[in-house]
Amino acid sequence: MLSESQLNAAQAESIQAELEQIVCRGRFAGINEIALDWACYHPEGATEVVLVVNGRIESHYKYWETIAELVTAGYAVFTYDHRGQGASQRMTQNPHKGYVEAFHYYSDDLHQLCQHELWPRQYQQTHLLCHSMGCCVAAHYLIAHAPHICSVAFCSPMFQIHSGKIPEFLAKQLVNSWAFCSRLCCHLFGGEPGYFLFGSNYKDKPFNNNLLSHSSARYQLFRALYQSRPELQLGSPTPQWVEEAVQACEGVLQHAHKIRLPILILEAGDDEIVDRRGIVAFTAAAQECRHHCIDGAKHELLIEADQFRQPTMQAILSFFAQNSAKAGLQH
User: Fold this and answer.
1) Higher pLDDT pick, 10 / 96
2) How do residues 68-93 score in pLDDT, each as one tens digit?
3) DSSP string, 309-322
4) Average pLDDT in the 92-108 region?
């Protein structure tokens, strides 16, 4: 694993150039023919694959360090960008708006991706590695389709959105009311929805007091990527996105008991983006779920400081290996 002292722009470019030697890229049609960007990194001899499902505002290009480590461990890596973000097709005239018509379109897209792009490659085992919103998307997919997956690692899962100092019931009423007013205004006056609360277009936020990572090196590389590739940028969510996300989280917790495969939840101890109550509820409801808290870590475990990121990656790789071995014994 790379340490923060080794991370700089030149090193990042070198690793990304090596990954480009083993990558295959493409696009597929998601629900309602929205074009979604995907990438498959296949090292020689790989028989197992890790499907990476990223979070809101993200792109798979951001995950080069994690992809490199998975490839070094012998895994192929398959990943993609959700509708409305990253390198995938946007659905609003202002491409910075975080919008989705229905949250289940995300998990339906994932199902389409697996059916048409991933399963035909016939890897022996498939593991899921998901972050934040991607955990909610993947959980919906697992509940609805019960695919043949070996194991799942959820990092900082969005199973309940952090409402800050606002009581949960008031926050939910605010979300529903704002979303209703937004839809009504669009219907009466045309145009597209605005931002939720004090939202805005993408902003290059400084490292100081950020809610994502303690690692200045990794944080700056992530921001530099978005500055060099502005087409990847995404701003704040729309009211409808927030309403759909809240309902999706409730749905996951209601049906978590239907997921019948090994799950590892890695919680960031100082997370201010997602609410740990959702993680606790999911862990209690899921059939086979292991929960580990990375004390002191912020939300972005995969771009955190070494003291948080290294135990995160070690736990993920160990979990995948253990379940691959179990699957091999069962066959």
Assistant:
1) 96
2) 999 999 999 999 999 999 999 999 99
3) HHHHHHHHHHHHHH
4) 96
Strand order across the beta sheet in which 289-294 lies: 23-29, 35-41, 76-80, 48-53, 125-131, 151-155, 263-268, 289-294
pLDDT at residue number 169: 66
Band of the pLDDT at 327, cuts 50, 70, 90? confident
CATH of the domain at 229: 3.40.50.1820
Q: How confident is the model at residue 163 (pLDDT cuts 50, 70, 90)?
A: confident
Calpha distance 182→192 (Å, rounded): 9
Measure CA 28 to chain center. 19
Distance of CA 190 to the CA centre of its chain: 32
- Residues of the domain holding 311: 4-330
**Alpha carbon separation from 150 to 234, 262, 274, 311 (Å, rounded):** 32, 7, 26, 21
pTM: 0.94
Q: Please state, in angstroms and as integers, the Cα–Cα distance from residue 3 to each residue in 8, 123, 218, 306, following that order.
A: 11, 31, 10, 6
CA distances from 230 to 178, 188, 235, 281, 298 (A): 29, 33, 11, 38, 25
**Tokens (6 digits) for 203:** 């902003």
Q: C-alpha angle 257/175/285, rounded to 5°?
A: 10
305 vs 164, residue with greater confidence = 305
Answer yes or no: are the C-beta atoms of 312 and 302 closer than 8 Å. Answer: yes
CB 175 within 8 A of CB 246: yes
- Cβ atoms of 73 and 313 within 8 Å: the answer is no
Handedness of CA 78, 81, 86, 88 (dihedral sign): positive
| Residues ≥6 apart with Cβ < 8 Å to 135 | 53, 154, 155, 156, 157, 158, 159
Average confidence (pLDDT) over 272-282: 95
The phi and psi torsions of 35 (rounded to 5 degrees) equal: -80, 125
What is the Cα Rg of the chain in Å? 19
Nearest to 36 by CA among 53, 17, 49: 53
Torsion of CA 49, 55, 58, 63, to 10 degrees: -30
